[in-house]
Each structure stands twice: as structure tokens, then as C-alpha cells.
Amino acid sequence: MSESKKKEREKNGGDCREEEREKLRREAEEKEDAKLEEYGQMTLNGSAGKRNIYLLSIIGEVEGHENLPGTSKATKYDHVLPKLAQLEDDSQVDGLLVLLNTSGGDVDAGLAIAEMIASLSMPTVSLVLGGSHSIGVPLAVSADYSFIVPTGTMMIHPVRMTGMVIGTERTYEYFEMIQERILNFVAGHARIAHDQLKRLMHSTEMLTRDLGTVLVGEEAVKQGLIDEVGGIREALGRLYDMVDGKKK
Questions:
Q1: Any catalytic annotation for residue 142?
Q2: pTM strictly above 0.85
Q3: Which of 46, 72, 209, 242 is most exposed, with the fewest beta carbons within 10 Å of its own?
């Protein structure tokens, strides 16, 4: 084979390999875009290639065993739980950033996600944007370190039930048991005492037509629910430090 033909074949082979790499890159980007659009999840790996951070968004209402209307923004726990298990099993993921803007939702589903986040071996940071109400409170405190933006809100109130409720003593005992699960989890993962949290939950001073308390930004920090006021810069910076510290 002549030298010119060899060079031409090598050039064609190089072009094919370059086209294949470009095709794979586009497919990876399309998968990331689809994952972000469908689940509010993506991987952040732009920190000079030093850290691989997974981003999880918990928005709208936390959906439980029953599907919400198609017009409602929802976080599906049956999507989130397998993903968290996958992250724990993935040695390439260094940390988890949880963004929260939720009105609450199903208690069992929310606590299941919160317990999964709290049990991860990788560093985790949460950031409350807009609001993290009701079952969103355990979700916010489930991370190793938590932030809230200055205008972010957290609503603490008793457990609410919809539909027909049987008015017996055992029904109210069941409600109390559910509330204790929430109180114990939050008090165990934040700097607020169980009794203080319960007082905020049953307060009659703020909400004229309901029980509970709304805490805004710095107030959530002062009460011991959230660790610090900050935004995405502070949250990512803290997570980077935690990841780097673990690697060392």
C-alpha cells in the first residue's frame, strides 16, 4: 500500500472517531436535558473537574401513592428514592445539592425521601428557595448542612388530613403519632428542641385561620431549623469544602 493511501486511511479513521465522540457527547447532553426537564435532576461537574455534584430539585407538592392532577407541579417519590439509592452506589458522585421550593405533600413520601437523604454517606447540602413548607421542613433539615435564602419561608403546622375522617379517639391518637414522627426527625437533624418545635407547630398567634408558624429567612436560622442564610454560591461553596475535606 502506498504511503499516500495509508495517510488517507488514517485521516478517514480519525475523522470517524471524532464524529463518534461528537455523537456520544450530543447524546449525553440530550439525556441530561431530558432528565432535568422530567425530574429536575442533573449532574454538576464544572468545578474544574475536581468534584462531581448531583443536583436534586424538590418542587411543587411531594406526591405519594396517589397521582396528582397533570396540571400540578409535583416531585414523585417513586422517582427520587431509586435515584438516591443509585447515587449511594455510584463512586463517581462526590456530593448532593438539594434545592427546595415545595408546598409540602404526602407525609410518608416526604419522610421516606428525608430519611434516604439523611442516610447517604456522601456530603449533602440543602437550599430553601421560595418555601419549604409542611413536610418540606424535614426535607430541608435532612441534609448535613442547610441554607435558606433571605426571603425563603418555612411553614410549620399540625398534620392535616383530607377526605372523610372517623371521629374517634384512636383517629386522633394516629394523628398524634404521625406528628411525633415529624417532630422527632426534625429535632434529631436540626438545632431546635422537640418542645420548641411543637410550640411553633401549634401556635395560634400568627395564622388567624389556622395553627402554625411561618419563619422567614433569618428567623428559621435563629430558631435552629436551618444552619445559615445564603444562596446558591454559599451552598455550593460549603458543599465543595465538605467534599474536599472528605477526600483529604
A1: no
A2: no
A3: 209
